[in-house]
Amino acid sequence: xxxxxxGPPEGQESAELPRVRRVADALIDLADVxxxxxxxxxxxYRVAGHCMDLLDxxxxxxxxxxxxxxxxxxxASSERMRPVELFELDAGEGPCCTAxxxxxxxxxxxxxxxxxxxxxxxxxxxxAGYLSVHAVPIRRREDVIGVLxxxxxxxxxxxxxxxxxxxxxxxxxxxxxxxRAALDHHRTLNRxxxxxxxxxxxxxxxxxxxxxxxxxxxxxxFQRMRAHARRHQMRLADLARAIVAGTIILSPPGAAGxxxxxxxxxx
Length: 267
Fold this sequence. Notes:
Keywords: Kinase, Transcription, Transcription regulation, Transferase. It holds the Pfam family ANTAR. It comes from Streptomyces ruber. Residues 183-244 form the ANTAR domain. The chain is of the alpha+beta class and 267 residues long. The protein has a domain at 16-186: GAF domain (Beta-Lactamase, 2-Layer Sandwich). The protein has helices at 12-16, 19-31, 40-54, 82-91, 95-102, 119-127, 160-183, 189-214, 218-231, 236-245; strands at 59-64, 72-76, 106-109, 132-140, 143-152, 248-249, 259-260. Strands 2-1-5-4-3 form a five-stranded antiparallel beta sheet. A two-stranded antiparallel ribbon has the order 6-7. The two termini are 35 Å apart.
């Protein structure tokens, strides 16, 4: 139409807000855990998203551990970092593992030169294009329940302001998970964390299925899933289970819409 102007690309409007406003919005978002339809899997992906939006990093991931269990990856900002994180967990070495066990933030510079500390992790991360990593424990008082993993394509430690903000985001994550556990007093934190870990497996299966059927990469497939879940007010994990079961079929990118499967909805 004459005189009309296109809106900003998706995500640009948020990026153009003053940083202090974005920090406040992120903390309010992470505090909103009392809703009846609270989706823990989506919450953890939002944690990673706020890290990406607010900090000078290339990728962010969230690891959690149920009581007495090993750390597991539950949210990642991209598929580039995911195999690096999984390798770190399998190898049992790296800044994230150390931050979890020592309950203290860890900075690590990555280069192609041989390094005595975490050599296998360092080599793997360097091949993925990362030059430094900052790991922040997610703590409930004295109990460490996980780690925020912040990867950078730049060498050196995070700027001091970003270090404080990363600590704040980790603390807000721990407080929100604890509040939700207290609200759902009939369930233990162990069951909540286990549910998040199980949901992650189903989400990964659905992402891989969509990527294979639509001929796209898994990051694009995941964005389609999140857009559909928000549009139809569904839990992300419920949508993933429906995709895997074949009861919901997402239309190809650019198609008119998504349809249910079954006798009255074959597509």
